[in-house]
Amino acid sequence: MAPKLYTSKVSGNCYKVRLLASLLNVPLEQVEIDFFNLQHRSPEFLALNPRGELPTLVDQGKIFNDSSAILIYLAGTNPDRGSVAAPSSYWSADVVDQASIVDWLAFAGSWIHAGLSKARAIVAFHWPPNASEADLTEAKKKGVKSLEILEERLAKEQWLALSRPTIADVAVFVYVALAEMGNVPLAPYPAVRAWTDRIKGLPGFIPLDGLDKALG
Questions:
Q1: CB atoms < 10 A from the CB of 92, how many?
Q2: 95-201: which CATH topology?
Q3: What are 119-171's pLDDT values in tens digits?
Q4: Listing from the earlier edge strand, what are the strands of the sheet with 29-32?
Q5: Span(s) in the chain for CATH 3.40.30.10
């Protein structure tokens, strides 16, 4: 039975999971949750995930309620395309490599979330409804700093954590690729743009549903 993913088409965090599953050729049973009508806060969903957050993955009796945890789980328990041995190359059996990957997962969950992700939500979706101009200004400021950090790293390295693409790249990619939806331009960051192009060229890459133009 395929893992069941509770997801939303507009969520970048949900897209990360769908993207990795496609890169690894892992089938998913997808259950679409209406985020803007707060279906993720319904009693039925809260019984599954008391945090009321997306994505949520259910597989073999286990429940994972965080996108980074799901990425680690899928990359660690599945092989690469055309291979039979886990973990996939998007994860590592080496603890030092794991620490390097998790370092960037934390960056995605803090800097990217508070900056580029928040700016996109405010500008593109007017979410949250009570967001102020000051909130947007602060999010854009954080987003620019995030891009500066990434530009410095990617001017020297092809990939974020290791010498190959990993879930670190998958986790950071989406809100960077969609930065301009939050009125944060990518033009000043050539190394970042080259990195997003490399990710789009990976076998199994899929665009974000409904936002193909922004990702193209």
A1: 21
A2: Glutathione S-transferase Yfyf (Class Pi); Chain A, domain 2 (1.20.1050)
A3: 999 999 898 889 999 999 999 999 999 999 999 999 999 999 999 999 999 99
A4: 29-32, 4-7, 56-59, 62-64
A5: 4-77
4-77 belongs to which CATH class?
A: alpha beta
Output b/e per residue, 141-177; b: 16+ Cβ within 10 A: ebbbebbeebbebbeeeebbbbeebbbbbbbbbbbbb
pLDDT at 215: 45
In tens, the pLDDT along 1-38 reads 899 999 998 899 999 999 999 999 999 999 999 877 77
Structure tokens at 195: 């990195």
- For residue 107, give the 3-state DSSP assignment: helix
Residue 191 burial (CB < 10 Å; 0-12/13-18/19+)? middle
